[in-house]
Amino acid sequence: MTSQVSKTVLRLEAEDVQALKDGINFKRNPEDGKCYIIYKGKDKIRACVNQCKHQGGLFIEDIEDLDGSTVRCTKHYWKLNVATMEYVNPPDSFMQDELEAVLSDTDGSLELVELNPPDPWTAEPREAQELRAGEITLTYLTHACMELKAGNKRMMFDPWLTGPAFARGWWLLHEPPSDAMDRLSQADLIYISHMHSDHLSYPTLKHLSKRRPDIPIYVGDTSRPVFWYLEKSGVNLTNINVVPFGVWQNVDEHLRFMILMDGVHPEMDTCLIVEYKGHMILNTVDCTRPNNGRLPHGVDLMMSDFAGGASGFPMAFHDGKYTGESHIALNSWKADFIKTERKKLLHYKTQLVKSLQPKIYCPFAGYFTEAHPSDRSAITEPPNDTKILKDSWDFDLYLDELNASVSAEIFKYKSLIQYYYNWAGFKGYNLVIRVIETDDDFKPLKGGYEYLVDFLDLSFPDVRPERDHAYEEIKNRVNVMRHVVLNGGLWDDLYIGFNNRMSRDPDVYHHK
Ligand code: FES
């Protein structure tokens, strides 16, 4: 195993150190062009790389900050307090990785030092061996599902082969090959990157479990377990392996893999390195900052998503600047936002690929469509020349299950509302929400519930409190809402699946 190494990333001579102003200083290493932030406090100097933890954006001074300790990311406007190295927006979220600031007693110089733990994939290195033509094949099946054949082994990644994801919001854009389920059930192992239902697809696993309940499935040891819903789902899988991060898992003498965590969502997101006879494949899947930016260079193949993160923003928002239809073409703010986001995403992916220099880069994991008729025109009616690669989705099978929740006995009792939010346990945050159950078109449902929840003390007032508070109005499709409540599911189904509409005052992101 290689040992930890330290590297001086920037050195300032004594006169430059004396010229540092109190508070924030931006510095650039003239040799490699990398940028750093140095914070000069009363009795301590702190420093970090000028790179946002979200998607690597550059920080600039925050003109709204009167303290002189906060910088603002130019990409999506996260804010970082460099006096504490805590991100202040989103609040209570992340810590910036800090560099050692070493001030010399002898010559007054300052060195910023990065401590680098050894890269785990360098453990027990293997020489790249020559391969026969066809010894490794990688086949795209759907969305984020790839089949990797290496030697005589078959691995599958993130199989979503049937049914919707996020309740009824996302549907496959491509028809999988007719033998896809056979291939899946013949796999030697399956890797599932995270719990989102376009990667962990219970409808797919239900089919699979009937054929091969003991198929080996591997997931990372995230603090929010990937298979948290398995028991409730009724799917019978008996060979799920939760493995530690950064440790090679040997499949046979030639094939091994290693699961790595995401730097932004370490609690739930993972990525993968597969190595066969010394040749490496890096699959960063949906990670926002895979392995916190430390990744192998020059791999044979790199795959990553090319979608901008699962989110209902801004499609599911209305009022204020979002006023108008959900459809991006009918709201210029949304249209501009999406256009800019796409540019940023392309830029970010380009930078990542340029810096890692894989031999082949394959973008994937963005192939879904809002196929259900009630979403199709509202969200993203595709442009005229778009090729539709699938034209039937068996909506009823899956919607019947959601609709069955609406009349569940438990919803006859209004006290369920208090019980549910107490069970969820979120409180101590100055936010009041109004929840309205709606039909498919987000019109309040006759006989549906409408109520307020005050998360400061987890009360359920009839009117909004007098005090200053953040407020959100959330219209939820009744079938998805009740299915989520009944099963203790995630609100991701509502929000990422475009099954709600929201307005908020003030118009800010809440994170706790
Ligand atoms: S907020 Fe900094 S990259 Fe997104």
From TrEMBL:
<dbReference type="GO" id="GO:0046381">
    <property type="term" value="P:CMP-N-acetylneuraminate metabolic process"/>
</dbReference>
<dbReference type="InterPro" id="IPR017941">
    <property type="entry name" value="Rieske_2Fe-2S"/>
</dbReference>
<dbReference type="InterPro" id="IPR036922">
    <property type="entry name" value="Rieske_2Fe-2S_sf"/>
</dbReference>
<comment type="similarity">
    <text>Belongs to the CMP-Neu5Ac hydroxylase family.</text>
</comment>
<feature type="domain" description="Rieske">
    <location>
        <begin position="12"/>
        <end position="110"/>
    </location>
</feature>
<dbReference type="GO" id="GO:0030338">
    <property type="term" value="F:CMP-N-acetylneuraminate monooxygenase activity"/>
</dbReference>
<comment type="function">
    <text>Sialic acids are components of carbohydrate chains of glycoconjugates and are involved in cell-cell recognition and cell-pathogen interactions. Catalyzes the conversion of CMP-N-acetylneuraminic acid (CMP-Neu5Ac) into its hydroxylated derivative CMP-N-glycolylneuraminic acid (CMP-Neu5Gc), a sialic acid abundantly expressed at the surface of many cells.</text>
</comment>
<dbReference type="InterPro" id="IPR037339">
    <property type="entry name" value="CMP-Neu5Ac_hydroxylase_Rieske"/>
</dbReference>
<dbReference type="GO" id="GO:0051537">
    <property type="term" value="F:2 iron, 2 sulfur cluster binding"/>
</dbReference>
<keyword id="KW-0560">Oxidoreductase</keyword>
<dbReference type="GO" id="GO:0005737">
    <property type="term" value="C:cytoplasm"/>
</dbReference>
<dbReference type="InterPro" id="IPR036866">
    <property type="entry name" value="RibonucZ/Hydroxyglut_hydro"/>
</dbReference>
<dbReference type="GO" id="GO:0046872">
    <property type="term" value="F:metal ion binding"/>
</dbReference>
<keyword id="KW-0408">Iron</keyword>
<dbReference type="Pfam" id="PF00355">
    <property type="entry name" value="Rieske"/>
</dbReference>
<dbReference type="InterPro" id="IPR027033">
    <property type="entry name" value="Cnh"/>
</dbReference>
<dbReference type="GO" id="GO:0006054">
    <property type="term" value="P:N-acetylneuraminate metabolic process"/>
</dbReference>
<keyword id="KW-0479">Metal-binding</keyword>
<keyword id="KW-0001">2Fe-2S</keyword>
<keyword id="KW-0411">Iron-sulfur</keyword>
<protein>
    <recommendedName>
        <fullName>Cytidine monophosphate-N-acetylneuraminic acid hydroxylase</fullName>
        <ecNumber>1.14.18.2</ecNumber>
    </recommendedName>
</protein>
<keyword id="KW-0249">Electron transport</keyword>
<keyword id="KW-0813">Transport</keyword>
<comment type="pathway">
    <text>Amino-sugar metabolism; N-acetylneuraminate metabolism.</text>
</comment>
<dbReference type="Pfam" id="PF13483">
    <property type="entry name" value="Lactamase_B_3"/>
</dbReference>
